[in-house]
Amino acid sequence: MTEKYTLADMQKEVDDYIQQFKTGYFTPLAQLARLTEETGELAREVNHYYGEKQKKSSEAPSTVKEELGDILFVTLIMANSLDIDLTEVFEKNMEKFNQRDHHRFVRKDEEKA
């Protein structure tokens, strides 16, 4: 059976990983640079798999899934270093989206006019 992680579990595991190194957490600006780099790598993979630009045969294989994982990891690191509880952030964001965007898109359960 595959173990399921909560955001809190993920933040704790990432913190345990980072705490084993003398360097610890990088500065927020360095983390943002890394997140930007990973976002660029995700964009490249999406372009290769879903866009018109094919990979060169000399390029190392990577996947959208891997790049999303890298972005998640860097996001967890940044949240930890800034003492941000991502579970709390997620809950507030979902509340915001559910209220703000409730009528923004046609819902599947609405009858078509």
Automatic annotation (TrEMBL):
Domain NTP pyrophosphohydrolase MazG-like, residue spans: 26-105
Name of the protein in question: Nucleotide pyrophosphohydrolase
Pfam families: MazG
Domain of life: Bacteria
Gene source species: Tetragenococcus solitarius
CDD domains: NTP-PPase_BsYpjD (cd11531)
